[in-house]
Amino acid sequence: MALAGARSPGQATLALAIALFLAVFLLVPVATVVYVAFTDKGGGALTLVNFLDFVRTDLFVRSFWNSVYVSAMTVAWASALALPLAYLTTRFEFRGAMLVQTLGFLPLVMPPFVGAVAMQLLFGRNGSVNLLLDEWFDFKIGFMEGLNGVIFLQAIHYFPFILVNLSAALRNIDRAMEEAAQNLGSHGLRLFRRIALPLALPGYVAGSSLVFVKVFDDVATPLLLNVKEMLAPQAYLRITSIGIDDPMGYVISVVLIAIAVATMWASARALKGRDYATTQRGGGGLVRRRLKPRESALAYAVVILILALVLAPHVGLLLLSFATVWSFSPLPDGYTLAHYARVLSDSSVYIKNTLLYSSLAAGIDVAVGGTIAYLVLRTRLPGRQWLDWAASTALAVPGVVLGIGYLRAFYGVKLPDGTPLAALWIVIVLAIAIRRLPYALRAAYAALQQISVSLEEAAENLGATKARTVRRVVVPLMTGGLLAGFVTSFATAAVELSAVLILVQSNSDAPLAYGLYVLMQTPAGRGAGAALGVIAVLIVAICMGLAQLAADRSQRARGLDI
Amino acid sequence: MSKAAGIEIAGVNLSYGSTQVLKNVDLSIHPGEFFAFLGPSGCGKTTLLRLIAGFAQARTGRVLLDGQDVAPLPPWKRDVGMVFQSYALWPHMTVARNVAFGLEERCLPRAEIDRRVAGALDLVGLAAYADRRPAQLSGGQQQRVAVARTIAIEPKVLLLDEPLSNLDARMRVSVRRELRSLQQRLGLTTIFVTHDQEEANTICDRIAVMDAGVIQQVGTPMELYESPANLFVAGFLGSANILDDRAGVAVPAGKRLVFRPQHATLTAAEGAAMRGTVANREFLGATVRYAVRVGESEILVDAPFRSGGELRGVGDRVGIALPPERMLFLPA
Amino acid sequence: MFRRSALAIGLILVAGSAVAQTGKVTVVTSFSKDVTGPLKKAFENAVPGATLEVQNRNTNSGVKFLEETKANNQVDLFWASAPDAFEVLKAKKLLSPYKPKATGIAEKVGSYPVNDKDGFYSGFAASGYGIMWNERYVKANKLPTPKDWQDLATAPYFDHVSISAPSRSGTTHLTIETILQGEGWDKGWRTIKEIAGNLRQVTDRSFGVPEAVNSGQVGYGIVIDFFAFSSQGAGFPVKFVYPSVTTLVPANVGIVANAPNKAGAEAFIEFLLSPAGQEALLEPTIRRLPVRPETYAKAPADYPNPFKDKNLQGLLTFNAELSESRTAAVDTLFDQLITFQLEPLKAATKALHDVDAALRKKDNAQVRALAKEARDLIAAMPITAAQAASPEIRAAFTGGKQKSARQAELEQQWAAFAKEKYAAAKAKADEALKLAR
Which of A64, A262, A510, C299 is deepest in the core (most CB within 10 A)? Predict the structure, then answer.
């Protein structure tokens, strides 16, 4: 795998450029905020005593273990949701597969605030389901109570990560592996369990480690369920308290970052010994069987059931956007289009900004993420693994910390005409991009791992330079993975709020999520907020569809049907 | 060991989309035979093999295994052992686990599984590698593990899909001999798919030559060599001279004259039915191969090499003599 | 000629000052569009040429933003409900003092002085705290209608009440502080904890409470009045009542230090305090209480009037200094004793409610004594009022040199204290219950 030394200068420059990018837009801003964790409050001397306080405080230790529990259980439940869908779509000729593919990523697109309100109205203690259960059967289920409520919401929200990665890995299994097992007497679920799943392990581990870290660091969902005894909400609450300059919020942020890096490292370690790529040749995926009518009905039932569950927030959102009043009842009192009327008139600037910011952010993510993946997997530069770790820390940095850090780092920088750098909307784009970089990075990494080096070497052998090889051979082959990265970045960027709230300085620069936040501050704004949320989801869905179409068309034109 | 089974294939037609891959295939494989499917790539030989294994479905026709119609049986119920071209060893399992797989699927008692795994690995000479992972083995060793994996279940039939194509030339010779001796020891009916006629000739009992989905001829290597049924078979197995009447010999319309290089001899040019000029001469050790230009055709003539014997040179005018009994007239 | 030039100069001066007042006035505010919209329009009508640029952020983001951008400040005004935010900004020297020229503004509304004593920020409106409830929820669960704070501490309300944490809501903090100043440190905390024992949740933002009541997730909420009224305006089935002793909390506006358009900022403040601005507060979407007493003549008959209504008068004079001196301690005590120990507190409270029910059926002196002991355990506080205001404790939060312990250590001490006490209280209550049955 070692590549000629003569090309190292180009690679080294690229690596340095990436390192600089990460330093300027991630590490330095975060450091300016988080260094407080290492100083003595008031004194300013360097010390680790705050970390000592962290482990001595019951509340923090309790929160830590709660976070670990919630994250692990979320991975378990998200896997339970993803596995049947992955099985059905990769193993069978199943038209419902299209349905799963297009709708399966929607749970990632959940507008802030209003999504949780919708979920409470459906599944809360006095939500639709429980009101009906109580009326008919005299009992209630605590879907949204405490830690279980968080696990429920998070599993629904993040299961697409596991679904996408697992499906991709299953599709890349050499068909001969399965046929050999069938030949020796195995079939059906037993074969799936003994052969397909172990071979798909890298994809599964990639998806589930991402889910673990994301849930561990999620602030919004626990807070909206009023669960405060988890690590990330604790950090947020302390950092955003007024008047108390508390280092503990930053101490917790450091712990969050450390856990994120540790998880990534552990998952990489776990897969190290397994040499999957070399013995896989043709790909071709598992053999697809046609379903008999009864099996087909069962399959559709399972798919619809799971999709209904994971899309429940969106259903609730839709209902809320048309509702006049919805309070303590299974369904709204009445319906109206007034909310949409109110929102459509002044949301064009939000829509424009959201499209612009999210596309740019996703583009930056794919470019930087792809480059880091290439540098890590294809070069022998010393310390390249650190680029990966550094980029991955972005998962764990709370949005509010990044926002403050950007202000601190860039507000002093002035443009020639006196406006501060941080006032430009490009800073918002960068904040959004940085926070999503790890998604694109993981997707690019997985895609590159499945491409044999010999394909690039053949190109170079025929006279192509490194750059041309990347452009003409590597990138087209990575399109599937890069697209997946673009999609997840875009979808989640469209609903980013916490960093935006600090950085936005005028309404004309604001994206949809901000408009939504403004609306959700009043009781009368709830319906309009939901309407804006639905618009946000629709926009993202349409853009995803278009991106998928464009990618499919270009792949087909080149004869590389994914 | 296992009871050898015969295979009957009757009237099989198979298409992928609009392309017909197997056309009216009829074949009969005797129990205990080492049978080859031989042909160029794309001729349908692998498809026919996969049909027997259950990985392809025919539109028409029947496949009988040991007298039983296997069409309704899925691959996992057919009891045929298949060795894949890529070996398809599972990287997440050790060699021993790979070999034990089929036995575990049959729910045999642990002691029996261990015994058979040990036996199979012993048979292929890899007993010491039981705890290694496939990634740690060489190509030849991987192939032997794949073979051990299938014979462990003592199948009725052994199917080998181009098993030697990924090995280097020297390994190919030794491994094919090992396969032959293994097959004879076990008495297993074996089907061997290959595009290499030398492999097929050296170890198989009978060969089915295929081209474009059609079985061209079935017979022992010698039969096929001596009495090819058509031009394709003649050209595929060993070198052959195929001539029409432009060579100066009377060839009936719609037919071609076919003969082997070693059956012709070089004579003096005067009075010979075929006359030409030596265009090339190759020294092959035991023989010298002359390429003689006759009219527009080039005819190959092999002469045994005897030190001190007569050698023609390039540019010599020569004649070619061919005994009538060595002349084959095959449809064009 | 002199007269003409004098006139010209005069005109230029007037025009100049008018120009200085106009232009863009930037305000960072936590008020919703319902409030800023009408006021912006009215302001721009009253001061032609001025435009109000509204940057909507939640309070803490607003404070952090001003802090981080002070080197090149582009904001003129900070406009919010939370008085603690203004104290923080004042302490960090991020505000410029300004004495409004408007006359006819009251000195005090309820218990609070309208303006900051040092003149760094001015009050322009007030709101009252009260109890809001969801009619459908209450009906479905057959619950009573509350009238007073004390009601919320009684048994039927168990697990049906919501409040936002004082550490997250400056106005809630003032309400808590008012209880402490009115009833005294120990009794005040006792009252607070008795109500807290009935809580279903403690939210981390003010709006979380009315939101939960609106959806019917929670039955009762301790909220600021305009949330309840705007919820009713939006059609939610909720009702609201001011308790017999209500806290009025002021809403403020202050000029940011080094404001780019100081004149414009001053004009805005003057507008807010002018009769026109104060009248605008009466609009249904805004529904704040003006600080100009004469405005109430224009208000509808049932509009609360802090200068006339008995229950809004305020029984005490709020001691702002005292509040200031212990604000961090009170916030942290609430969080460590209540917010993060809610389950143990509720468990003990439930047990006591059961004991009371048993006592009503059959009185028993010993059981009553045990119950009293349990209640005393719950009401116990880890520090006294004097300690709470002391320099040592204060320094723990600011990082000063006199601190006795670090903030994290204090928090852990107080949390452990509460955990122990509540467990002991529950044990006593269980004991009493066993005796009673």
Answer: A510
CB contact under 8 Å between C55 and A124, yes or no, is no
* Interface membership of B82 toward A (CB under 8 Å): yes
Two tokens, residue C178:
């008012």
C330 touches chain A (CB under 8 A): no
What are the tens digits of pLDDT across the range A188-214?
Answer: 889 888 988 888 887 788 889 889 998
Please count the structural domains in chain B: 2
Q: Are residues C30 and C94 in the same domain?
A: yes
Q: Does B92 touch chain A (CB under 8 A)?
A: yes
The answer for residues whose C-beta is within 8 angstroms of residue C386's C-beta and 6 or more apart is none
Q: Which of B70, B99, B104, B105 to mutate to test the interface with A (most CBs of A within 10 A)?
A: B105
Interface test with C, best of A61, A327, A404 (most C CBs within 10 A): A327
Q: Does A287 touch chain B (CB under 8 A)?
A: yes
Pairing relation of β-strands B34-38 and B317-321? unpaired
Closest by CA position to A260, among listed A395, A123, A418, A436: A395
Provide the number of CB pairs (under 8 Å) joining chain A to chain B: 78
Q: Mind listing the pLDDT tens digit of every residue in chain C (437 residues)?
A: 455 555 555 444 444 444 445 689 999 998 988 899 999 999 999 998 899 999 888 888 888 889 888 888 889 999 998 888 898 899 889 999 999 998 888 888 877 888 888 999 999 999 888 999 999 999 999 999 999 888 999 999 999 999 999 988 888 988 899 889 888 999 999 999 999 999 999 998 888 999 999 999 999 999 998 899 989 988 899 999 988 777 788 899 999 999 999 999 999 999 999 999 999 999 888 889 999 999 999 888 888 888 888 777 766 777 888 888 898 899 999 999 999 999 999 999 999 999 999 999 888 899 999 999 999 999 999 999 999 999 888 888 887 776 778 888 999 999 999 999 999 999 999 999 998 87
Give chain A's domain count. 2
Q: State whether B263 and B295 are in the same domain.
A: yes
Asked if A310 and A406 sit in the same domain, the reply is: no
Using a CB–CB cutoff of 8 Å, tell me whether A388 touches chain B. Answer: no
Examine the fold and report which residue of A336, A359, A383 is the final residue of a domain before the chain moves on: A336
Write out chain C residues lying below 8 Å of A523, CB-based. Answer: 210-211, 214, 227, 230-231, 233-234, 236
B 149-168 residues with CB below 8 A of A? 149-150, 153
If asked whether residues C351 and C429 sit together in one domain, one would say yes
Three-state secondary structure string covering A23-82: HHHHHHHHHHHHHHHHECCCCCCECCHHHHHHHHCHHHHHHHHHHHHHHHHHHHHHHHHH
Cβ–Cβ under 8 Å, residues A239 and A253: yes
Residue A514 distance to chain C (closest CA, Å): 9
CATH number of the domain encompassing residue A215? 1.10.3720.10
If asked whether residues B29 and B169 sit together in one domain, one would say yes
Q: Cβ of A185 and B84 within 8 Å?
A: no
The answer to the question of residue C315 being in a domain is: no
Q: Is residue B1 part of a domain?
A: no
Q: Per-residue pLDDT tens for A243-281?
A: 667 788 889 989 998 998 899 888 878 776 555 543 344
Say if residue C240 is in the same domain as residue C271.
no
Boundaries of domain holding B171: 7-235
First vs last C-alpha separation in chain B? 47
What is d(CA A399, CA A388) in angstroms, rounded to the nearest whole number? 20
Supply the range of the domain harboring residue A361: 1-47+337-562
Closest residue in C to A114 (Cα–Cα) = C211
Q: Nearest by CB to C33, from A43, A223, A518: name it.
A: A518
Domain count, chain C: 2
Write down which residue in B217, B235, B253 finishes a domain: B235
In a domain, C370, yes or no: yes
Record the tokens describing residue A159, joined without a space. Answer: 């299961």
Tell me the shortest Cα–Cα distance from B165 to chain A, in angstroms.
Answer: 15
Phi, psi (degrees; rounded to nearest 5) at A23: -65, -50
Count Cβ atoms below 10 Å from residue B109 Cβ, excluding itself. 9
Q: Where do the DSSP E strands lie in A118-218?
A: none
Task: List the domain range (segments joined by +) for residue C23.
Answer: 2-125+250-305
Residue C92 lies in a domain: yes
Q: Which residue of A has its CA nearest to B152?
A: A184
Give the pTM. 0.83
Tell me, yes or no, whether C11 and C65 share the same domain: yes
Distance from CA of B105 to the nearest CA of A (A): 6
| Residue B225 resides in a domain | yes
